[in-house]
Amino acid sequence: MYTRGMPFFIFQLQKMNKADLRKKYKNLRLELSEEEIEQLSLEIANRLLQLPIWEQEFYHLFLSIAEQKEIDTENVLHILQGKDKNVVLSKTNIQENKLDHFLLTDSSVIRKNRWNIPEPEGGIPIAPQQLDVVFVPLLAFDEHGHRIGYGKGFYDNFLSECKADVIKIGLSFFEAEPEFKEVFSSDIPLDYCVTPNKIYSFKY
């Protein structure tokens, strides 16, 4: 509850729950122009090159939902392909509330699902335990490495299936919130988050 003498911006920060933060960052993304998204996405991809992650073998990448004004990961894909890495994509499995994972190859067929997520139709299956690096989509994150996604739980379930030392990297147009009010035991924190201006490291 707000009390007299408490700075209003602190009161606002304390009130922000996950639903509020989702709304805030969805609106912030909707304000970005296509040109801004293109430039900011390129800056994020270039900053990724500074991370000590490029000696790994299997890299899981999400393909962007253009309608949601997500980060364009095409630049990241080009980096991975240029380094001759194994790129793994996911397909949403609604029946089992999980993601299935497939190796990206020259013969892969990518189509948008009902939520406009570009996905492989199938292909060579890859187990989560095989993955070395996972690039994680998000709406917001905090200075402790906790992330807020769309609230469906697909990525939390997926990351819980990966090996303990998998490198989890969030990508964000915006900087970190100080701290989230709601953090649950099932929330898996990031190791890094990369923005156009900064690399956040949560590896202690």
TrEMBL record:
Q: Which GO terms describe its biological process?
A: folic acid-containing compound biosynthetic process; tetrahydrofolate interconversion
Which SUPFAM superfamilies has this protein been placed in? NagB/RpiA/CoA transferase-like
Q: Where does the chain bind substrate?
A: I65, E70
Q: Which UniProt keywords apply?
A: ATP-binding, Coiled coil, Ligase, Magnesium, Metal-binding, Nucleotide-binding
Q: Which reaction does this chain catalyze?
A: (6S)-5-formyl-5,6,7,8-tetrahydrofolate + ATP = (6R)-5,10-methenyltetrahydrofolate + ADP + phosphate
- Which InterPro entries has this protein been placed in? FTHF_cligase, FTHF_cligase-like_sf, NagB/RpiA_transferase-like
Q: Which Gene3D superfamilies match?
A: NagB/RpiA/CoA transferase-like
Q: What is its EC number?
A: 6.3.3.2
- Necessary cofactors: Mg(2+)
> Do the record's keywords include Magnesium?
yes
* GO-annotated molecular function: 5-formyltetrahydrofolate cyclo-ligase activity; ATP binding; metal ion binding
Locate the residues binding ATP: K18, A19, D20, L21, R22, R147, I148, G149, Y150, G151, K152, G153, F154, Y155
Show the coiled coil region(s). Answer: 11-50
On whether Lipid metabolism is a keyword of this UniProt record, the answer is no
Q: Which family does it belong to?
A: Belongs to the 5-formyltetrahydrofolate cyclo-ligase family.
Q: Which NCBIfam families match?
A: MTHFS_bact (TIGR02727)
Q: What is this protein called?
A: 5-formyltetrahydrofolate cyclo-ligase
